[in-house]
């Protein structure tokens, strides 16, 4: 098998997001969960393979080691170019991991320079004058400033990245991008001559990202969010795959939500308003020894099997703060991951065949618990939110901030229920 492009993604929902972008670009795409074993196999005729890691919030040395392992595995399967995918909100800290991982991937590839752009216009993320915007707000003024693990209080991408690398960081402004592919390539050469290694580019539209993707086609390593990945994928020659893509199977449907993002809370509220069954997991009670998982399963068994159900540990900012104060940030997250991972296994054993998971860390816990190592990417429900397929299970891994408020209801296509008021 010879891949056109290999991708290293820093979390599981990010991997799903970028895999969907490659598929939109016309590339048959496989998604691999965790650092693959030498024996991990890909579906036939893949143009792109995405290795989804849990490295976003890991210690920097661990994130680097896992990313290099994924890169070498992709090289062994013929990938000539590496795309390092991180969140379109540039989730990171001054210690990393975007800078350290990018530098390690560049060093391994013997590359002098990379292009970086986290813009994702479909999700409302744009870059202008090196500043990252979430819809019409600067990143530092958006809800991401309250991110429970990596609060983003600065919007300047050059400043954020410069804190994570010893190498120089430069910028290609929007005016250069709008002059086209040749202008961007010339600008990259100029930055390289100036000793710049990380070149951030402005982008407001998908057309801007298509220009950047075409300009970066010959770079050994490119970094960014799904928008740039799609632009890069479209720069490759067109591919046709006559085989039919898989569809979600029949069977029970469930949502497991661990994200505490504002968008996930909206999606939970919409699901409940639609008259669909919901069950809240008491994380503090679970930490105190109560069998919260058994309670959830007893509730699940009592529900109408024709209706999708939602089991969630998500909490408002005040509720989350109270749990974190009681347990500590790390232990609170560990409790949620362990609880939802174990529940996923037991739900699948009970016949759940469509499983939607909300939250990056939650998605990692669920796929690990289920022992899933690879899947084929199928149809998107919302931008960046596709179904993936493995065996007789359809799995949707959703970043906490992605999807319309009614995503849970539309994705699981329940029997008719009352409309929200």
Describe the structure.
There is one protein chain. The mean pLDDT is 91. A hairpin with a 2-residue loop joins strand 16 and strand 17. This protein has a 15-stranded mixed sheet, with helices on both faces. Helix 2 (60-76) packs parallel to helix 3, helix 7 (206-215) packs across helix 8 (226-235) and helix 13 packs across helix 14. The longest helix has 21 residues, at 329-349. The chain has helices spanning 12-24, 60-76, 98-109, 157-162, 174-177, 181-193, 206-215, 226-235, 262-273, 283-287, 292-301, 317-327, 329-349, 360-370, 407-412, and strands spanning 5-9, 29-33, 48-52, 82-85, 114-117, 125-128, 131-134, 137-138, 168-172, 196-201, 221-224, 252-257, 278-280, 309-312, 352-358, 374-382, 385-390, 393-398. The N and C termini lie far apart (52 Å). By secondary structure, the protein is α/β, with parallel strands linked by helices. The protein is globular, with a radius of gyration of 21 Å. It has 15 helices and 18 strands.
Brief overview, please?
The protein is α/β, with parallel strands linked by helices and 421 residues long.
Mean pLDDT: 91
Helix content: 25-40%
Largest sheet composition: 15 strands, mixed
N-to-C CA distance:
52 Å
**Major β-sheet strand ordering:** 9-10-5-11-4-1-3-2-16-17-18-15-12-14-13
Strand content: 15-25%
Give the number of DSSP strands.
18
Rg, Å, rounded: 21 Å
Question: Which runs of at least 5 residues are low in confidence (pLDDT < 50)?
Answer: none
Give the helix tally.
Answer: 15
Shape: globular
Coarse structural class: alpha/beta
């Amino acid at each position: 098998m010879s891949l056109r492009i290999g991708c290293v993604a820093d979390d599981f929902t990010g991997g799903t997001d970028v895999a969907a972008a490659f598929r939109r670009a016309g590339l048959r795409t496989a998604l691999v969960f965790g650092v693959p074993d030498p024996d991990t196999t890909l579906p036939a005729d893949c143009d792109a393979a995405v290795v989804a890691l849990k490295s976003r919030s890991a210690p920097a040395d661990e994130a680097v080691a896992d990313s290099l392992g994924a890169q070498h595995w992709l090289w062994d399967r013929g990938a000539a170019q590496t795309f390092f995918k991180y969140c379109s909100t540039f989730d990171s800290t001054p210690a990393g991991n975007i800078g350290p991982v990018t530098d390690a991937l560049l060093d391994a590839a013997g590359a002098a320079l990379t292009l970086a752009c986290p813009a994702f216009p479909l999700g409302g993320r744009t870059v202008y004058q090196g500043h990252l915007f979430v819809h019409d707000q600067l990143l530092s003024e958006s809800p991401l400033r309250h991110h429970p693990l990596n609060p983003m209080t600065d919007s300047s991408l050059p400043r954020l990245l410069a804190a994570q690398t010893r190498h120089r960081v430069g910028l290609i402004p929007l005016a250069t991008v709008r002059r086209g592919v040749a202008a961007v390539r010339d600008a990259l050469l100029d930055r390289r001559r100036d000793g710049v290694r990380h070149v951030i580019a402005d982008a407001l539209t998908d057309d801007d990202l298509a220009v950047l993707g075409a300009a970066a086609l010959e770079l050994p390593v490119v970094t960014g969010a799904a928008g740039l990945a799609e632009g890069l994928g479209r720069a490759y020659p067109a591919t046709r795959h006559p085989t039919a893509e898989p569809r979600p199977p029949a069977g029970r449907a469930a949502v497991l939500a661990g994200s505490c993002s504002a968008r996930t809370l909206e999606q939970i509220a919409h699901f409940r308003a639609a008259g669909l069954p919901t069950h809240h997991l008491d994380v503090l009670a679970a930490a105190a020894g109560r069998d919260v998982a058994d309670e959830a399963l007893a509730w699940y068994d009592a529900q109408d099997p024709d209706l999708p159900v939602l089991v969630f540990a998500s909490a408002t900012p005040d509720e989350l703060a109270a749990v974190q104060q009681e347990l500590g940030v790390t232990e609170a997250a560990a409790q949620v991951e362990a609880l939802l991972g174990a529940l996923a296994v037991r739900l699948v054993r009970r016949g759940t065949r469509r499983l939607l998971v909300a939250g990056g860390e939650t998605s990692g816990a669920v796929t690990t618990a289920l022992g899933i190592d690879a899947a084929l990417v199928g149809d998107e429900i919302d931008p960046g939110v596709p179904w993936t397929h493995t065996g007789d299970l359809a799995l949707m891994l959703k970043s906490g901030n992605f999807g319309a408020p009614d995503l849970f209801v539309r994705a699981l296509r329940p029997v008719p229920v009352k409309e929200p008021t």
